[in-house]
Amino acid sequence: MVSVLIAPDKFKGSLSADEVARAVERGLLEAAPHARVSRLALADGGEGSVAAACAGRFRREETVVTGPTGEPVTAGVAVHGHTVVIEAAAVCGLGVLPGGRKAPLTATSRGIGQAIQYALAGDADTIVLALGGVAITDGGAGLLQSLGAVLAREDGAPIGPGGRALADLHTVDLSDARSALAGVDLVLATDVDNPLLGPTGTAAVYGPQKGASADDVRQLDDGLAGFVRQLETAGVTEAVSLAGVPGAGSAGGLGYAGMLLGGRVCSGADYFLTLLGADELLAASDLVVTGEGSLDAQSLSGKLPVALARRARRHGTAVHAVAGRCTLPAELSAPRFRSVQALTDLTDQDCATDSALSARLLTQCGRTLADRWITGCVDETRPADKLALP
């Protein structure tokens, strides 16, 4: 009996990782009903991380926190034992902006600190911050303030919300915030490697996605640079060096704030693969199906399907991919995936925001995989790129 592991990331805007896996499973079992199928919903540290964790052994809990514009947001966190996963996008993400109105200069990360407080109240000893998809560029200032850090203006009053307020920063004291996380393993799971400042920093690269104009980007980067200088003046000797660490610029600078609190940056894809038990399932599988909404050049920089394919190679397990679209040329996809099926090759309709259509096409992909690789005969001497669907 063939053992198949279906372990995708979400198809953003269309289907959750678990929904993708179930759709592929339906088609695969229609064509190969005797296959033994395991599903593992995955995430790479961005949006969908809590849902992926809760599709496994984690349970979902909810807490009310401050959203990016100051209004309350009910955010889900994933809990298993003393480990808590907090998804930044669910707390201060673009998707929770009231009316979708962006606030690039004033959006705050205060709710992240409140979610951390919720985790600490439940005796968490490991807190995973899934960083991505946020609306903020405040360098994690709001997070630090909500954990007790002093970020004050010259008159002693706390600075206001958002990255623009960093220009008013005169006094910094992180003592209480650092004490709050003493003894806690703070994991900063991200799939980006931007530093905090400069032309490849968080304001320059991601600010425009959050509604920042060219002038806004300059204000935000200047404010973040001033934040670093004030930290150094306050005796935080590692402030400058941490600003240059890859990942410091993740999630509007939440990566930087997390490192100031003793957190460690890691590949979101690799961390979640380990957290959710992928290696054990890979070792027991004859064939793996993975995927994400878009297989492209960015996928090669640590996105989940490529990270999973790398691990599967250690077990000698063939990996097949499904994607909403695939722009990787054969010479880049073939070394990683035995076959690739893209939904855009199966329809002229726009399935990126059509969950029902995406699910139907993924079921079709599952049938094709079973026909070609389980019930049918495949010529293993053919080059892998010739096996990808046109």
Beta strands, count: 13
Specify the number of helices.
15
In CATH terms, the superfamily of the largest domain is Glycerate kinase, domain 2
Q: What's the CATH topology name of the largest domain?
A: Glycerate kinase, domain 2
Structural class by secondary-structure content: alpha/beta
Instruction: Characterize the biggest β-sheet.
Output: 6 strands, mixed
Quaternary state of the chains:
single chain
Proportion in β-strands: 15-25%
Strand order of the largest sheet: 3-4-5-6-9-10
Q: Which ranges are low-confidence, i.e. pLDDT below 50, for 5 or more consecutive residues?
A: 377-390
Structure description:
The chain has helices at residues 17-31, 49-54, 88-92, 110-121, 141-146, 175-180, 202-206, 214-233, 239-243, 254-260, 268-275, 278-283, 304-314, 330-333, 355-375; strands spanning 3-6, 36-39, 59-66, 72-80, 83-87, 126-130, 150-152, 171-173, 185-190, 264-267, 287-295, 318-326, 339-342. The protein has a 6-stranded mixed sheet. The chain has a 5-stranded parallel sheet with strand order 2-1-11-12-13. Strands 7-8 form a two-stranded antiparallel ribbon. It is 35% helix and 19% strand. Residues 377-390 have low confidence and may be disordered. The chain is of the alpha/beta class.
